[in-house]
Amino acid sequence: MTTSASISSMKAEEAANLIIGGERLFILDVRNEADYADWKIEGKRVEAVNIPYFELLDGVDEALAALPADREVLVVCAKEGSSVFVARQLAEAGVSGVRYLEGGMKAWSEYVRPVKIGDLRGGGELYQFVRMGKGCLSYMIFASGEAAVIDAPRMTETFLRVAEERGARIRHTLDTHLHADHISGGRQLALQSGGTYWLPPKDAQEVMFDYAELADGARIAVGGATIEIHALHSPGHTIGSTSFLVDGTYLLTGDILFVASIGRPDLAGLAEDWAGDLHETLYERYRALPEELIVLPAHFGSWQELGERGAVAARLGDLFAGNPGLNMADETAFRRMVTEQLPRHPNAYEAIRQTNMGRLTPAIEEQREMESGPSRCAIHDN
Amino acid sequence: MSGTSSIPTDFILDCKGLACPMPIVRTKKAMDQLQAGQVIEVQATDKGSLADLQGWAGSMGHHYLGTVADGENLRHFIRKASSDDALGGEPFARTATNEELQAKLASGETLTLLDVREPAEHAFGRIPDAVSIPLGELEKRANELPKDAPIYVICRTGTRSDLACRQLEGLGFVIIYNTIPGMSAWGGPLERKA
After folding, report:
1. Under an 8 A CB cutoff, do A52 and B55 touch?
2. What CATH number does the domain containing A244 carry?
3. How many C-beta atoms lie closer than 10 Å to residue A50's C-beta?
4. Any one Gene Ontology biological process term (chain A) (predicted)?
5. Four-CA torsion A294, A297, A299, A301, nearest 10 degrees
6. Of the residues A60, A87, A108, which one is the last residue of a structural domain?
7. What is the pLDDT of residues B112-165, one digit of tens each?
8. For the complex shown, is ipTM > 0.85?
9. What is the C-alpha separation between A139 and B89, in angstroms, rounded?
10. Which of B19, B24, B47 sits opposite A54 (nearest CB)?
11. pTM for the complete prediction?
């Protein structure tokens, strides 16, 4: 029995690093069962039990029985309050080293973890920013004191801070498409940094703000002429969806092609129309590209897609060999796969689209609420 | 549901401005003071309180009735678990099934439908034209009911209505039916208004 009945917080960053580092983590998630079923913290060596805090009001015996004797416990709830409530009771019952997730799932959803993907020519670098709680991926290209950010989330501070730390000025922010699962920070980040916000014009027909048109074949320079971002129109998830070829090595596929799945064509209500576009993009436009390209998607569907160091990336040739979405025998079967039995829609996806068009301006708390839960942009997501 | 109308309850608990877990902690304490079958209104501004109260009520056996949204304010209605299914004495002999009542209503036959559940239960789902008199008020309000037409009594599971039928019989009412199993399994027309 320990003498200490103290509890301590754990930031989302520490939890993410433990998970990516392959450390064992035991989570007692005290949210209600429906929220837990909807989304939770997962990882290779994460073990979790769900006991709602409101079943522990009269004592924590039920939780004590479920906890491992030999490990620290991380208590998780929606916003922190209930996890502190339960953690204190556990500590009072003699459990040592009880921690709670600072800011709860709200903070987990907003945390983005930078991972270096590789060096680019002329001393440039490419980073992936992994939003572990939501499954969103953003990218930052550095070259000669300049930076470009692709598919930025609404938490733009992280990107401003990283740019400042590296003495780089953000010249461009780009969105591969009009997002339906999360609120884009692209326009905001461009305003904050004095850069240019780029959006595919076919996805921008109803937007309420000025933007630079990302036309098929456009070339955007970062760091003088050091690094080039080459835009490739690749419709299917949306009509304007655009991929980026970076430094001739990396293919940023947006929500068209993921490591374990492919994009869903139905989030703007036009699944039947866009299924054909999606097929053409995946089976013709992408097929014509070099197999050596490294695919960097805008999402991942489960922690299994997180590779070494927590990055999400795969060789295009490997995906042609193993990704089920790239291996359908004919277009009819493909159409069926991408229009029938799709996963649930992302939370509040229509309001999120309206927000990304500048037609809605929800308060920050409401934005958080709209973004709760996983992205569900792939056809195989849960 | 939304609206600002008031629904009579046995207790109103103000949890406005409180963050999770306090709305549930307070509700539990308040509920401990209530008697079985009584209804509490919990006012809260924490959006998470809805799913959590539903989950908590379910696991405790309490009966979550519904929630009214007044702008930012959420008004949750919960009825404390009751063991009123364990009544003494012979059950009231004349019963009608839900389906029989539904057919009578559809045929337009003259009858009185008496709902003896609490006002909050009535508010969150009732048969159109049902007269609402909670069981606890029946003795003193029985004079509102006609003595010359059949009365079909209904509650949630047939227990309170059974008691109501026996009370009405003692008060001189003659043509009375206990509707079983009651609102918990009602498949006919339903209206809600709060």
Report:
1. yes
2. 3.60.15.10
3. 17
4. hydrogen sulfide metabolic process
5. -50
6. A108
7. 999 999 999 999 999 999 999 999 999 999 999 998 889 999 999 999 999 999
8. no
9. 74
10. B24
11. 0.85
